[in-house]
Amino acid sequence: MPNLGTTEIIIIALVVLVLFGSKKLPDAARSFGRSLRIFKAETKGLRDDDHQAPATHQTPAVQPAPLPIEAPAQVAAPAQGAQPGVAVNGSAPAADRH
Q: Which of 2, 64, 67, 85 could be 93's S-S partner, Cβ–Cβ 3.0 to 4.6 Å?
């Protein structure tokens, strides 16, 4: 990997200054710093969660109370007087189906 010298760093800084302007650079640096601070806090929180995770597995989990079982709804039986060979709901009679 090439090493950056002072002249290269100065040239890069001038290019950034020309591209973004002197008014936006402080705001950009401030928002970058905030983002970096939030990122560090979140990664630290994840590491702390990993250390606390084995301790939480030792405690028994609370199980919810079982729900009462309901009887399924009764399905209406077909009419006793249904005639064989009569179309039902627009379908062909049972004798005509092959």
A: 85
Q: How many secondary structure helices (H) and strands (E) does the chain include?
A: 2, 0
Q: Which residues contact 86 (CB under 8 A, 6 or more apart)?
A: 93
pLDDT bracket for residue 64 (50, 70, 90): confident
- The string over 2-24, giving b where at least 16 C-beta atoms fall within 10 Å of a residue's C-beta and e elsewhere, is eeeeeeeeeeeeeeeeeeeeeee
Answering whether pTM is above 0.70, one says no
Looking at residues 69-78, what average pLDDT do you find?
Answer: 66
